[in-house]
Amino acid sequence: MKFQDIDFKSDRPVAVKLRKPSPMLPKFQLKILSKAIIASTVIILLGFSASSWQPAAKIANSTPKSARLHYSLALPKSEITLEHEIAKLVQPIDDNDWKIITIESGDTLARIFSAVGISAATTHAIATLNEHTKSFRTIQPGQKIHILQDDQNRLRMMKYVPDITRTLVIQRNEDQSFSSKIINYKLDAFPVYREGVIKNSLFEAAAEANIPQNIIMEMANIFGWDIDFSLDIRMGDRFGVVYNELYKNGVKIRNGQILAAEFINDGRRYKAVYYTDPQGNGNYFTEDGKSMRKAFLRSPVKFSRISSRFSKKRWHPVLSGWRSHKGVDYAAARGTPIRASGDGKVSFAGNKGGLGRAIFIQHGGRYTTVYGHLNAYAKGVRKGKKVKQGQIIGYVGSSGLATGPHLHYEFRVNGVHRNPLTVRLPEAKPVNPTYRDHFAKNTRAYLSMLQIMGSTLAINSY
Q1: What residue ranges in 336-440 does DSSP mark as E strands?
Q2: CATH architecture type of domain 93-184
Q3: Which of 91, 99, 319, 421 is 20 to 30 Å apart from 239, CA to CA?
Q4: Residue closest to 137 by CA, chosen among 97, 172, 168, 116
Q5: 235 DSSP assignment
Q6: Other beta carbons less than 10 A from residue 400's beta carbon
Q7: What span, in angstroms and rounded, lies between the C-alpha atoms of 341 and 356?
Q8: Quick check: 305 and 331 in contact, CB under 8 A?
Q9: What's the pLDDT tens digit per position in 217-261?
Q10: What distances in angstroms separate CA 311 from CA 298, 307, 327, one per listed residue?
């Protein structure tokens, strides 16, 4: 087979019909024709080069079929882009560039931004950005806002410190939108132990023992289901408390929560420890895992005195006659907050004869509490409204048949009046049995601190 018989588009040999060769041109004519073609090509290439080529042109590696030419072309100068502008914004920040504004009474975010030249559009964008920036609706006098602006007074970055443990940071992004994040600062907790002896009052004993007021108030709330601190306190009662002190960079910031506490009242010992279960639910329990909470508060008014007790026969100061008194009267200043003694639903809120302005709360199927002689109702309290234990429902007054401001409080079981001071209150749920080992392990250290001083309290309380 001859090479003329091969089809270069296929691997199969094919039969090819050969045409008779055309008469060949003389050699002289062929030479002239070749030179003319080469000259024309050179002229065309030189003309193209003069108009658009760069001097340095190179031939890239060519395939067997064709040669490809690659040329270096000059590109136009790049314009200043948004990225270049944003790059300026992320340069290191000098502390002197920040404006620090101390919030004053009556200030709003709009007023603060306007004072430093930030546009109303930016104010709206920040105020409606997300849940984080809703905190600007409740800014308080004395808080600080740090503002960083560019040379056109546009907001570049800002920081708002609502408290010592959190900072809200807002910054402008590359696409000119805003984003925010919360930075949380962890405080170092150190447990401390304090104890006191009551000589005149609980608060005096706390002050003498260098126990902060908020800690003693919290302790009173913990034991408030078992001890009426307006009536039951006796001279010689003793107490001890373990609580956290919170520090930042070696400086005390504030007091933390109570970890464990003990109170010996009239010779009877009460002990409580704080426990958080694996589900994150925390509360105070006795050392054997029973809840310190009861379904009801013993007293719906904090630290008041009793002006009239539960009695089947009492001289009524207004009606001037002997009548039963089926509740307890707590004398207190007009406007003193009244708390719901337990979770429930308001079954009545309005005027009720001699009780004046009154609230009835139904607690499940068995229990009802009554609050009378109110000066006013708390906002939102009305018939059918659900309330939580400790929630403020009204304020002490003297409406109805009353000679002075006080709260008339009743406790009913299946419709029968019971003495609120002595009735046995139902308990809340204890520690889940499946968490008993976890409870013992996580409360042992704090109970041990109380145990160390427990013998001293027991000996000295008699």
Answers
A1: 337-339, 344-351, 357-363, 367-372, 374-377, 386-387, 392-396, 406-413, 416-418
A2: Roll (3.10)
A3: 421
A4: 168
A5: T
A6: 18
A7: 20
A8: yes
A9: 999 888 887 887 877 889 999 999 999 999 988 888 889 999 999
A10: 18, 12, 8
